[in-house]
Design goal:
The protein is α+β, with helices and mostly antiparallel strands and 289 residues long. It folds into 2 domains: 51 residues; 216 residues, no CATH class. The radius of gyration is 26 Å and the shape is globular.
Length: 289
C-alpha cells in the first residue's frame, strides 16, 4: 500500500472512532438524564421492605410491663399485679422486643402450611433469629430462618408465648447499653433536629428506627419503641407524625410526633406516660448504639 493509501486508511479509522466516541457520549448523556428516575425507582424498591410491615402481623401478641408505675409523671415501684392492674411479671423487655421484632422482619419467614416445631426446636430457631446484628440488611426469602405452622409473628407469639418470652433475650442488660448514656450529654435541640433528619432518612431507605425515649433528668418515661412508618402529612399543620410499635401496647400502633417550631419530639399519652415532650435517641442503628 502506498503512502496516500495508508493516509486515507488512517483518516477512515479516525472518523469511525470519532463517530463511536460521539455515540458513547450521547449514551452517557441519556443515562445521566435518566439517573434521577433510576434512583427514584431504586428507592421505591428498597422502601418496599419497610412498607410491608404490618402492625397486626409483625409484632408480638404479648406485652411488656414497666418496672415502675407512674402517676402524673412521677414514678414509683409497682405493687404486685391485681385485678385492676396489668400483669407485670414480664418487664424490662422494651428494648428486647423492639429489636427482635426488627430481626424477625429481616431474617425470618413463616410457613403457615408446615408442621409446628416442638418447644426445643422452636427455641433454637428463635435464638438463631436474634443473633444477627439488627442493623444488617434484610436477607432474601430463601436465606431466612423458617417458622412452620404459623402465618406471622403475632400468631406465633400468641400460640407459643412462653417459648418466645424465654428465648428472645433478658431485660437487665439493657441498663448497661452504651448508647443510652447519650441522655447525660446529648440533650440539645440541635441534636434532636439531627435525630429527626436521621429518622426520616432511615425510613426513606426502607429500614426501621428503634427509638430510646427519655425525659431525663425527670423519670416520666424511660422506654424503647420501633418506628416503622411516617404518616401522611396534614396540609393544615407542620407537625410530622410517625407510626410506632410500642411493646407495652400490643393492641394498636402508637404515635410519635415531631414539632419543628420547637425542635422537639412528643409522645402519645397513656396510662403510664403523661404525654408531651421527650428526647429521642436512635438504638441498634450501628454497633454500640
Amino acid at each position: 500500500m502506498d503512502r496516500r493509501g495508508r493516509r486515507d486508511g488512517f483518516v477512515a479509522v479516525a472518523r469511525w472512532a470519532t463517530r463511536r466516541g460521539r455515540a458513547y457520549h450521547l449514551s452517557a448523556l441519556r443515562t445521566a438524564k435518566r439517573l434521577p428516575w433510576l434512583l427514584a425507582a431504586a428507592l421505591v424498591a428498597t422502601n418496599a421492605q419497610a412498607s410491608d410491615f404490618n402492625f397486626y402481623h409483625d409484632t408480638f401478641a404479648f406485652a411488656n410491663a414497666t418496672v415502675f408505675k407512674y402517676y402524673k409523671g412521677i414514678a414509683f415501684l409497682r405493687a404486685p399485679s391485681g385485678k385492676t392492674d396489668p400483669a407485670n411479671s414480664y418487664t424490662r423487655r422494651c428494648f428486647v422486643m423492639t429489636r427482635v421484632a426488627m430481626q424477625f422482619h429481616k431474617f425470618a419467614r413463616f410457613d403457615p402450611h408446615g408442621q409446628p416445631l416442638d418447644d426445643r426446636a422452636l427455641a433454637a430457631r428463635v435464638r438463631a433469629v436474634t443473633r444477627p446484628a439488627p442493623w444488617r440488611e434484610a436477607l432474601p426469602p430463601k436465606e431466612r430462618i423458617v417458622f412452620p405452622g404459623y402465618a406471622n409473628l403475632r400468631e406465633m407469639s400468641k400460640a407459643r408465648e412462653t417459648v418466645l418470652k424465654e428465648n428472645i433475650g433478658a431485660g437487665w442488660p439493657t441498663y448497661f447499653r452504651p448508647g443510652n448514656f447519650r441522655m447525660f450529654y446529648q440533650r440539645s435541640p440541635k441534636y434532636q433536629e439531627q435525630t429527626h433528619s436521621r429518622l426520616d432518612d432511615v425510613l426513606a431507605h426502607g429500614d426501621f428506627f428503634i427509638a430510646y425515649l427519655t425525659t431525663y433528668p425527670r423519670l416520666s418515661i424511660n422506654h424503647a419503641v420501633l418506628i416503622y412508618a411516617r404518616k401522611n402529612p396534614d396540609a393544615r399543620s407542620d407537625i410530622e407524625r410517625y407510626l410506632v410499635y410500642d411493646p407495652n401496647h400490643p393492641d394498636s400502633p402508637r404515635e410519635l410526633t415531631w414539632l419543628p417550631r420547637e425542635d422537639s419530639f412528643a409522645y402519645q399519652k397513656d396510662v403510664d406516660f403523661v404525654g408531651g415532650h421527650i428526647r429521642v435517641y436512635q438504638s441498634y442503628g450501628k454497633w454500640l448504639q
